[in-house]
Amino acid sequence: MHPTASHVADVLHALGAAGQVTELPEAARTAAAAAAQLGCEVGAIANSLVFSADGTPLLIMTSGAHRVDTDWIAERYGFTAVRRADPDFVRSATGQVIGGVAPVGHPSPLRTLVDTALAGYDVIWAAGGLAHTVFPTSYAELIRLTGGEPADVQRPARTAQLPSSGSDS
């Protein structure tokens, strides 16, 4: 096993994770590619996305079926700006490369938000440090492993208000 994946596996073991890092037959740089190889719904893939939140790394574990609303995250969590991090920023913050960032095993702990949509799956899959490594986990375990905060990563839809009829008959 590659040293990066081995390090993630060691960290998971030390944290008491139930699942083990396994290698996929092919690289899975997208949630759809990982889901296809694992035979699961794309929503059960926990994407590890690193953002620059006012210059500080912010890891958002999001369901493969969602996109992160960065304006909503900034507003909700008090940041001036939340922007997708460039590859150098990601590598510096995580020690890993985009496409395979694991939720653990970083040089320093990262503030982590975990998409509440992942709670709808009994088994979710997260990257194991490389684009072709993954491990199974649960929503509760992912929160525990990362010290993460449950979060809605998209602005809630507003419900339409029905116009009043104007009569009280």
- The CATH class is identified as Alpha Beta
CATH superfamily: YbaK/aminoacyl-tRNA synthetase-associated domain
Structural class computed from helices and strand pairing:
alpha/beta
The counted number of beta strands is 8
**End-to-end CA span:** 74 Å
**Whole-number tally of structural domains:** 1
Contiguous runs where pLDDT drops below 50 for at least 5 residues: 164-169
SSE sequence, one letter per element: HEHEEHEHEEEHE
Oligomeric state of shown chains = single chain
Q: In what range is the share of β-strand residues?
A: 15-25%
Percent helix: 25-40%
Average pLDDT taken over every residue? 88
Query: What would you report as the Rg, rounded to the nearest angstrom?
Result: 18 Å
**Shape descriptor:** globular
Set down the secondary structure blueprint.
Blueprint: H1 3-14, E1 22-23, H2 31-38, E2 45-53, E3 56-63, H3 70-77, E4 82-84, H4 87-94, E5 111-115, E6 124-127, E7 133-137, H5 139-146, E8 149-151
Parallel strand pairs: 2-6, 3-5, 5-8
Antiparallel strand pairs: 1-7, 2-3, 2-4, 6-7
Overview of the molecule:
Helix content is 26%, strand content 23%. The chain is an alpha/beta fold and 169 residues long. Strand 2 (45-53) and strand 3 (56-63) form a beta hairpin. Residues 164-169 have low confidence and may be disordered. The protein has a single domain (3-151), classed as YbaK protein. The chain has five helices and eight strands. Strands 1, 2, 3, 4, 5, 6, 7 and 8 form an eight-stranded mixed beta sheet that branches.
